[in-house]
Design brief:
The protein is mostly helical. It has a single domain, classed as Hypothetical protein af1432, CATH 1.10.3210. The protein has ten helices and no strands. It has helices spanning about 1-15, 20-25, 30-40, 45-60, 65-70, 85-95, 100-105, 115-130, 135-145, 155-170. Helix 4 (about 45-60) runs antiparallel to helix 5, helix 4 (about 45-60) packs across helix 10 (about 155-170) and helix 8 (about 115-130) packs antiparallel against helix 9.
Length: about 170
Amino acid sequence: MRVLYRAGQLWQALTATPAIEDLHRASEVLSPQLMALFLNQPAREQVHSLRVFMRLRGDGVKSSDLLAAALLHDVGKGRYPLKIWERVLVVIGQALVVRPGVAKDLGEPRGWKRPFVIARQHASWGAEMAAAAGATPLTVELIRRHHDPLAAAPNHPDDQLLRRLQILDHSS
């Protein structure tokens, strides 16, 4: 079942085009500077982020910080854009060998380790980029932590928002 899910993700990445009406909805939440940051992402990242965003909106989420983080959580990947084959390599590598904690010590994104470093570092890069573009501190923190492990039932309200982002990020 997981293989079919990943195959579907690959197909979506190859054919992704954001819908104009979804981009309009995103612009209602993001400032012009943050919208420019969002639009600087590859189409496949925009579509993924819009999917997370629309599911949150469909669930009645009103937190502008969470909605903005949903749209911007992967902008750090734009610092060193991944090719499709590199994305596939990361998924396979993380499933078989390279755990996310290992990649933090790999250094600069060069050579064979490039996609693993990008996968590991994109959250902190994205948080820096969002902060520089004027995102709120909570939005920046949600972006920075969107891959961090959390307790099964987080108590802090910010962690509860983060949990919702993580669940939808991994299923969209």
